[in-house]
Amino acid sequence: MLRWARDRAREAGLRSVSPGTGSALRLLAASVDAKAVAEIGTGTGVSGIHLLHGMRADGVLTTVDPEPEHQSFARQAFRASGFASNRARFIPGRALDVLPRLADAGYDLVFCDGDRLEFLDYLAESLRLLRPGGLVVFEGVFANGRTVDSGPQPTEVLRLRELLRAVRETQELVPSLLPVGDGLLCAVKR
Question: Is Lyase among the key words of this record (predicted)?
Answer without folding.
Answer: no
